[in-house]
Amino acid sequence: MKTKVVYTGPNTSFVVRDLPPVSDYTFRVQAHNRYGAGLVSDVCVGRTKAFTPAAPDSVHVSHVRARQFTLVVGPVDDRGASIKSFQVDLNGDITTHSLGNASSPSSSSTAIVFRDLVPTTKYVARVRAVNKMGHGPWSDAVEANTLVALPPRGKRPTLIEATQTSLRVRVKLLDKPDVRSELAIADAHAHAHAGGNERVIVCDSKDGGAVLIDDGLKRGTSYQLRLRHVNSAGPGEWSVALRATTATTAPNAPGNVRVVDAGGKWLRLEWDSAEADGVPVTSYTVHVCEDPSRSAGQSKKARKRRVAAVASSALPFRRAYSGAATRARLKALKPFTSYLLRVMAVNEVGSSPPTELSAATVGVAPTAPHAPAVSTKDKSDDEHVHVDWSVAARKGGRRQQVDVYVLEGRSVVDAELQQHQQQNQQPNNHSHHHHSAAPFAPLYTGAAHEATVPLNGADVMELRLIARNAFGDSHPSQSIKYRTPRAIAAAKTAKAAAEAEKQRRAAEARRDDGDAVASSVAAAPGVHNLIASKNKRSNDTDVYTWILAGVVVLVALAVALMFDVI
Question: What is the pTM of this model?
Fold first, then answer.
């Protein structure tokens, strides 16, 4: 340990200066007089405190660009407390830059990057370090001059005019004296496969951005054009390419347009490929419009006006198909409607003339009509039935076309009569006969809304109606059943007989029950007289029941005979 004398004098206090921060020191004091030196005192220990950091000695600028540069700060004396951040004064704007996990600036350099700056601008920077004791003094100022920025990316050129040997395009120029604009043109097919053969043209601002290229272009050829700007810093990025084709003739109109199939709401068309002069056909379009000469619900004068509009292309055509195929299925059409069709071929030059107008009619089978109704009784009897019906229901707000109506019928079993007949049979002798229904057969076919048809001996006839046009039959209507007066009378007779049979069976059941009770209590004299009196009253009731049943049967026979006579 090195020891030195830091003070000699008469005072009893002294300040020791220029000591390193955060350092331990030991002090001893010895008194002197004229007789000599006294004893040395005990050791006193002292520790210096930390200071604010020193000013950075080495600050310089590197990696200068148009919009950024890097400020490099050399090692800085932290004066006993670690440096946490740097403060930078950049043209009067003070910002703080934290060190984070970076190496201690007391032993290595620190790089601070400034971005989003203004090109060709002078920046003056100075730096100071910060620790827990505060910030130190500023460093010497350094200067940085940002460079010229590259020009922005060019805008995509727009085509003004294309002839057979020239292209005129418009480009967006930059209004800066030190920037020039370059337009590159190349054969689109050759550039895509070879990646070169571009020709660069310097754009002149005198024409307001319009550039005419009329040297060395081929007829009917597709070219790719791109724009970029160049300044002292170098060229900017190329724009998105414009594809332009020198003119040829538009394709010829497709021929032999024909309807190959039709449905209720669609048409299927086919046509021959169109011929093109140098530029291939890229697509076909089909436009449709209702035929004004056949539109329903219009006066003759209105139809004449619409027909006259055909020649002037004033009809409301709409595009129904666009594609490369030479066939199309047109959808969303109206049933039973005539249409005008236009087919055009399209290439990069333009569209062909439309084909001649052609008409196609589509239709659908009608929907099911309303159920028929049996007319009044004076028109229907045991041999004939008179039926009428309303017109077929509307579909989509349009009245359907119906050519004829078909009235179908079949003989069916009278369910009510069969039920009463089964009730007349013995309880244990019920026979179940399942009759399969006969198929429907046409009884009337015609355009009228009513018909009288023969029953051919049937007592109950099931009827239904079908609407028919050129496109097919509708679904059958809901069926109805007609019962002849003869069937109704027979059912009433059977019902009366069933009621009589029911009462007879009830009387027999009561008599059988009385006999059983009498035989079981015959040995009881006290009860015998009571049962005998009850049996007598029961026999009297059975007599009245048989008389009533006979009267009912006679009435039913009289009614049946009356209808037979009629």
Answer: 0.37
- Pairing label, strands 180-187, 199-202: antiparallel
Cβ of 228: how many Cβ atoms within 10 Å? Answer: 19
Cα 160 from Cα 258, distance rounded (Å)? 38
The answer to whether 102 and 85 have CB atoms below 8 angstroms apart is no
**Residue entry with tokens 């090692």:** 75
Q: Are 365 and 471 in contact (CB under 8 A)?
A: yes
Using one digit for the tens of pLDDT, what is the confidence trace for 103-162? 455 567 889 999 999 988 999 999 999 988 888 899 999 999 998 888 899 999 999 888
Tokens 């059941």 sit on residue: 509
Question: Any residues with CB less than 8 A from the CB of 77 and at least 6 apart, and which?
Answer: 53, 54, 106
322 pLDDT tier (thresholds 50, 70, 90): very high
pLDDT one-digit tens code per residue, 486-496:
888 887 887 78
CA atoms of 119 and 514, how far apart (whole Å): 129
DSSP string, 439-504: PPEEEEEESSSEEEEE-TT-SEEEEEEEEEETTEEPPP---EEEE-HHHHHHHHHHHHHHHHHHHH
Q: How far apart are CA 73 and CA 109, in angstroms?
A: 5
Burial 541-558 (b: 16+ CB within 10 A, else e): eeeebeeebeeeeeebee
Q: Mean pLDDT lowest for which of 18-32, 284-298, 345-359? A: 284-298
Contacts by 238-241, CB closer than 8 A, 24 or more apart: 238/153, 238/154, 238/184, 239/153, 239/154, 239/155, 239/156, 239/157, 240/156, 241/156
> Residue 197 carries which side chain, given as an amino acid letter?
N
Q: Residue 142 is encoded by which pair of tokens?
A: 């350094």
Ramachandran bin of 314, using left for φ above 0, alpha for ψ from -120 to 50, beta for the remaining angles: alpha
| Amino acid at residue number 4 | K
pLDDT tens track for 345-404:
998 778 888 887 766 666 666 777 777 776 655 678 888 888 888 766 555 545 567 888
Distance CA 373, CA 465 (A): 10
94 neighbors 111 (Cβ within 8 angstroms): no
Half-sphere exposure (CA, 13 Å, Cβ side) for 204?
A: 5
Taken in order 477, 478, 479, 482, the sign of the CA dihedral is negative
- List the one residue out of 208, 160, 212, 163 whose CA is nearest residue 183: 212
Token digits of residue 436: 């399969």
